[in-house]
C-alpha cells in the first residue's frame, strides 16, 4: 500500500479524503526541539517534521540522509502544504 502525506493526498484525492500521513496531526504530538521522521510518502520521499521553538518545519529527503539540515531554512508546515507537488523531481 502506498501512503501519501497531507499535501500529496490533497493533490491526488482532494480534501474529502483523510490523508494516510496526516502531517498536522503528527505535528500536534511533536515537542519543542524534537522531530519525527522519516515518514515515507510515495509522492515526497522521506519527510521529517521538526519543532523549531513551536514552529513546525518540514524537511524532505529523497533518501535517508544522515546530515543535519539547516532547520531555519526549511519551509514551515503551512508553507510546505501550499507548495505545488513536484511530480517530476529531478533533484537538486
Ligand atoms: Zn507527500
Rg, Å, rounded: 13 Å
- Overall geometry: globular
H/E element string?
Answer: HHEEEH
List the bound ligands. Answer: zinc ion
Give an account of the 3D structure.
Helix content is 22%, strand content 24%. With 92 residues, it is α+β, with helices and mostly antiparallel strands. The protein has one domain (6-82). A three-stranded antiparallel beta sheet has the order 1-2-3. A hairpin with a 2-residue loop joins strand 2 (45-52) and strand 3 (55-61). The N and C termini lie far apart (28 Å). The mean pLDDT is 88. The protein binds zinc ion. The site of zinc ion (ZN) has 7 residues, from helix 1.
Task: Write a brief caption for the model.
By secondary structure, the protein is of the alpha+beta class.
Which labels suit this protein?
binds zinc ion; 92 residues; alpha+beta; globular; three-stranded antiparallel beta sheet
